[in-house]
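2024-03-11 09:14:02 DEBUG pipeline.ingest accepted 1 chain
2024-03-11 09:14:02 DEBUG pipeline.ingest length=602
2024-03-11 09:14:03 DEBUG pipeline.predict start
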Amino acid sequence: MKAMMTAIRLLSIPAACLLSILPAAAQNPPAQVPPETVAPAAAPVAAPVAAAAPAERPRQALPIVEVTVYEDRALVTREGEVTVAGGVETILVGGLPPNLAETSLRAGLAGTTGLAVAGGRVISVSSEVERQREIQDTRMRAVEDERRTVARQIAAIDDDRARLTVREGYLAAYEKLLKSAISERTAGGGAAGADPVAIPRAGPGPGGDPGTAQWGEALKYIQDGRAAIAAAQREADQRREKLQVAHDDLAAQADKLRRPQERSTRTAEVVIEAPGAGKARLRVTYVIDSAGWVPRYDARFDAERGDLFVTYFGEIRQETGEDWTAARISLSTARPSVGANRPELLPLKLAAAPNATGAKGKGIAHRVEKTGEEVESEVRYSVDLASPAAPPERDLVTTASRETATGATFTVPSIADIPGDGRPHKVPVITFREGARTSFETAPRLQRFVYLKASSRNATSYPMLAGAVDIYRGSGFIGTARLKFVPPGNPFEISLGIEESLKVKRTVTFNDWTGRGKEKREGFDIEVANFGEKPQSVTVLDGFPVSDIEEVTVKLDSTTTPAAEKDEKKGHLKWKLEVPPGEARTVHLEYTIRYPKDYAGG
């Protein structure tokens, strides 16, 4: 646009001179060809809609007022005021999600006190899924309006480019006449009938020729004008290209919106009996999948105050096909998916079976006795009864431990909006601040870092469920830790991340075979250095091997630094070091592993 305005300013300077040079036909150019006209968009054609049956009744839309979220589903409550005519009648409640559990659908009259209808009751409730073809008229009109706006902008650019083309023609004519005049003057005289004012003059030029300077100025004016027009045309082309892309995208969107879209919705039929006409509050509840929640926490440690500020969140995800807008949210730890009945304990019977591996002997099958609709379940072990065999290798199996409070329900203190986009949305449950006792721990055999640990207490009446904890300290976000289940009032420990002022180093001091290759001796030095300004107490955890083989023994060497705690069964050692600022403390660990004589070691 700046280049375009520059072109217009340059071209407007010598208009009088230009008009004096051009012939009459050029002074009155034909009307420019109008730019491409943008036809006004036709009004959207309404999609053909099947004629409504005469008996069709309007559907009531009840807003979502309350949601109880479980681990893998949600209980949704809709409630609103409806008008009843009295007697027995059917009220249609529309806009329900098609994927709700139909057997969970319930309806009732709530809060009829003070309304015109009292003593009414719900006789029955049922539902069916309807498929509708609809055109999104509102969205389509908005897209069409936006497309027409872009089309007008494109037309304005085309008008500007047309004006630039006309001005470029003026410059070409001016240049032609100017060069002709220069040629005649330099050839030895003016042309017959030439107008001396056709060439701008401003005084004598170099060499005594009174027109030379003016000719140079006129030629420079033509060059500058063409450069400005070229820049304005490039800018206009770039803007038009971007607008054309936007115009095409909007046209494609409008075309898509014109095509009817099929949408499924569920309608509930609620049969009500009311003593008379008036108003009533109808409540509809149902269970729906594709929703759930997990606990999550923010823990902020204040080193100056020596306390821990904990925020308890519920992280909700839902893709139910509906948005929970301005709803009361409750979070429940109940697990409806498990069922109400305990599983039936069936008898186990041993029976001889062919060995699946083809080895000699017979296999043993553990068979679950079939009862009723139970399906047979077998686990076969390839056991050779003729000769003993080594047990098969097994992959390491980790069992996930889940600790929860039975039937606990958390009510979110404020109204919440949870869109059905499948993304995590955190809602606060409760916050508390409690004093924290800190300590430092390190396990250098696994990681060469010293960690800060806080011990505090659950100062709420709610259980803290197992979940992720986002840790914050003075420097900001530290990382994410895991919290185990903590009942109300009970203590808990949580890691607060790496302490940079403390460094740990684990060095191998001995690693060799002795005793003719039947003894393996290993030794380590563990050093903790304090680069801070205060003395710190650091707990060092390390260990020695524990043998499950009777012929293999492990013995701690007498040079090992005495540990504050020792667990022979697990092979764990724990030292407590007091490390002054600017100093380091070291512990030594050494042990010997003795193998039997027939062991091929070394």
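2024-03-11 09:14:41 DEBUG pipeline.report Residues 292-334+403-434+461-490 form one domain.
2024-03-11 09:14:41 DEBUG pipeline.predict end
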